[in-house]
Structure formats: C-alpha cells, structure tokens
Design a protein that fits this description.
5-stranded mixed β-sheet, globular, 34% helix, alpha+beta, 24% strand, 4-stranded antiparallel β-sheet, single chain
Amino acid sequence: MITREELLRLLAPLGRPCVSLLLPTHRYAPDSAQDPIRFRNLLKTARKLLTDGVPKAAAEEILAPLEALSEPAFWRDQLDGLAVFACPGFQAVYRLPMPLPERSIVADSFHIRPILGALRANRRFYVLAVSQKSVTFYEGSPTGLGPVDLRDLPTSMRDVLGVAEQRPGLQLHAAGESPIFHGRGAPDENRREDLARFFRVIDKALWERLRDERVPLILAGPAAYFPIYRDISRYSYLAPESVEGNVDSATPEELHGRAWPVARAVFQAEEDAARNEYEQLSASHLATSILTEVATAAICGRVRRLFVQEGKVLFGSLNTATGEVLLHGRQEGITDDDVLDDLSEAVLARGGDVLELPAGKMPEGAAAAAILRW
C-alpha cells in the first residue's frame, strides 16, 4: 500500500545508484503470462545502464534481490501495476490498482513520479465495505480496486463483540439497501452502541494507516451504518456520498463500478477548485508556470500545490540545493532523471500537494505550474 509515509521512505537519503522498475500488470490469465517476461526485460535494461558506471559486483548486489522476483509464485495475485525500487541495502515492491508505464530507470534517486497517481487525491481513493459479517478495505484508482490487509482491522462484528457479548435476541441483516434489526424488544440505543463499538475498532485500525492521508474514503454497506460511522470516524476525507447496499457478495469489480463515480465527482471538484485558484492568483507573485521559478520555489518549500502534465517527461537534473534545472532531450546517463519527478518529490517532501492533469487542463499549457505559499 502506497501512503505519504511510504513516499517519504522512498525519498529518504539512501545509497546510490537507485534502480526503478515500473510495469503494467494483469490480474488474470492469459494476459498475465507476459508480465514476468517483460519484467526480466526491464531487469536487463537496468543491468546495462548500471554497467556503464558501476562496478559489476556492485551492480549484481543491487539486482540480485530483484532476480528472485522472477519466481512464478511472485506473479500470482497481481493487480494493475508493479513498482520495484532497489539501491544498495534497500528494496521495496508495490502492487497497485492502477496501470503504470513500462520503464527501467537508473538514477541518483528513485523514479517515483509514475506512482504519484497512487498518492494524489485526484487519482486515488479508498473504499471501506462493511457488513455485520465482513469488513474489507480497498485501495482504488480509476481502473480498479485492490484489497489492503491492515493489521488490527476486524473481519466481522463478531470479532469485536464476541458471541457472548452480543445482545440476547439481537440480530441484524440487510434487506435490499437498508439493514433490518430484530430482537426481543432491545432498545434502539443498545443496537446503535453495538455498531458504535464495532466502528470504533475499525476507525482505530484505519487511523493508524491513514492519519497523514488526504484522499477520499468511500463507505459501502447498509445505509443506516453511514451516519453512525461518520460520527465516530477521525478521518477528515470521508466522501460525501456512499455506496448503499449489501456488500457481502460484491466483487471488487462490482464495488469499483459503484464507487468510482463517487470518487470521480470528488476529484473533479478538487481539480476545478485548484485550477480556479491558480487563475485567480496568476496575476500575482503567488502563482507561476515558469519552470525555473517553479523549481526554485519547490526547493525552498514555497510550493503549496504543484501541477504537472500527465505523461510528460523532462529528462535532466534538478539541483536540490539551488533549484537550478538542466534539461536534456533524452536520458544521457545514470545521473539523469525526470525533472518533473524530482519537482514532485520536492513538493511532497515539504508538505505540498501535487495534481497531475492532462495537457489541455494544465495552467497556461505548461509542463509544470505552481501555487505558492508566499
């Protein structure tokens, strides 16, 4: 699971060189059969780039753990994208519910920009599907959902209340889109408190992982659950709309089909607000689309929101001390990286937000633009 905390781990000063392997993957056969072959091709490219400037023994030390990923067992249960990062003494692997471009890059830092779509509020969301019998947490993107295994997240109401503690005669089941309680005269307040206890445990498990996140969380389940959960939840980014109905038998594909329109509406509202704010500030010193100014401001921590053009790559280098930018037409060596990637890293590491927009929606048609703090 990619979180802002995980991002900071990837941005922390680590050994050099840094290898980044990105690959679109497939959930089902027969398409999934090609994924390990393409991954091995990316490894070959990385090995060639490494041998241009790194001793063979050092290169093999970095790549050896990645070779182990060629085993068939690793390629079961893939999602839509795979991101693998390695440098001396460090490896990280992420399965993502979003396709990634196919890239093999060796540089002084990790090439994290393609996975920023799994970190930004306009590309990523969560779904919490809850019933009396099951609790499932998903990470979502425009293309699909992937289940996330969270420590301490209960799997059912019984995990929290236990058989002995459940109120005598109290049962709950869903009929259509609304839950029905029935029992021997149990007061409504007691039923609500059972649910509240259940939801407090769920919220505690989610809070441990989401406290620094800024992306929508969509609730799915019986409609009567939603106001109780909203009263309890500490997460500030609950989506205003929910997915109502019985989720016990819903597949990830079915849930995504109902949750994505909710997430898309949230994303569109955020993008519109951000672009309007840029337009309002464009005549002042608090907004700029000049790359050199954006870069200097990013390094100084002045960028509150960075806009980057979707799919655009600017190979070159960003001086992390001065903000100076040097651009090249293509990757010319292991010190080259995507400057837009480096700018995104700098902004996120300093507490700013990054939005990726299509070229036609970019402020002033630029490759990068920024709203500044001061």
